[in-house]
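Lay summary. Proteins are chains of building blocks that fold into shapes, and those shapes determine what they do. In this project we predict the shape from the chain. Here is one chain we studied, written as its sequence of building blocks.
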Amino acid sequence: MDDSSNFSKQLAEAVQKKTEWFDKDELPAVFEKYKTIQGYLGNLSNVLLRKGLIQKDPYKHEKKVKDILPVDKSPFLESERTSVVGIRLSDYDNTIEFITTYIKFSVECLSLDRIRKLANFNSCIPWTSLSGSADPNAKALGEILTTIRAGSDSMTTGMVNDIVSHLGKDFVDINAKLKDLTFLQRERYKLEVRQKIVNMPSFDKQKASESMDTAIAMIKKAFPGAFGNKPFYAELIEEIVKEDFTPEGNELRQLVIKKLSSQSSSVNKQTESAASVDLHEILMESLRILSGLAPQLEVVISKLTENKDAIEAENDSFFRRLVKMIRTMCGLPEKPIQYKVPITESITKTTRMETVNIQEFIADLDKRMRVYASFSSRKNPSYLKINQLPDMKVLEFLTKQLGDCQKLLIILTALDTYFKKVSSDMKSVKIRGMKIELSAIKGVIIKTNQQKAEFVSREEEQKHLQMLGIKNG
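And here is the predicted shape, written in a compact code that computers can read:
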């Protein structure tokens, strides 16, 4: 049996390296996964709300999440499905927002208890197996998705299928990392017990070697004085005794060190994988992220149309109605409706007035929405067509779309301001604001730009490796 103190030193070094790896690489990736999930969930909820398949939770913003808890799984009547699923998806989204806002993703802050809560939450909706599930929430969602897939709206069907697929994969990835983190936290706990109890001069190791029960009892007796109110995990104490005071202990300890050191092999493989990474797939993922604009643009189009109609109805007169009727009878196009809106330049902060033909602008948004929605499905002809292009052509297309979207966001913000001013000037006109949609659009643009930057960075890295003689695998 190896000396326990020497093993503790070796264990401490391995735990420290693994902790640094988690804090630097794994946990930031987990945080980003949760943020991505939040975006996908928002898009899914928007689609279901638009289709009338769920109802909006009227108290969503009044609910205060204080802990990571699974959503309610109690049964409900079929007639309650739209309202109950809407509320539970809202609660689900609120919890993810709590996770991304208030939980610090570091080894020090993610205790065993918190990891358990995250894992339970991650599994409360089985996104990879909604169909045929006995869980009330999964069953209801599965039926809702079946309704969408049975419809004729192939664009929405592709978008929903892609969202559900991403949600399933992302939670699987997160749970795999949390499982690895659980092992690290267990070894951190065991290391601390060794340092504060087992390796102390006052601990009689010879007596502890007499039997497992004796060793466990000795550690349990010393535990309160060393750890106060810290939880006593009998299972982990038993592992310590097996590793330190039994004949098979040496083999068990080697397995622990080997598993803790496993990330070093993945780190060593990063250079190799960098040369063989699929750059084209990273680039196409940017387009799939951009598809998140489609449901937001659909809502924006609806609000713009309603706002336009409300203003025109207020300004309507007998003469204008007569002119409109004559134009219709003669087959003439609708008279252009133009708004002069203030545009603020982001760099110079100067404001200028720009004339927006609202009909043309809405038509452009509608066309753009359909194009972006097609990117959500890998099987869509438009997606497949772009997928056949060289990377540089795809990058040019993506860059142009992002530039156009930035301009659209500026005009939409200006229109939102314009409509609000009209509403204050004309009290009888009811205007629908677009603050939520504009924020969501901005978020999608940022995420798409980040993915695009990832492609550019990886491409540069790959070129550098090729200069060093490391070729694509």
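What the prediction tells us: The chain has a mean pLDDT of 86.
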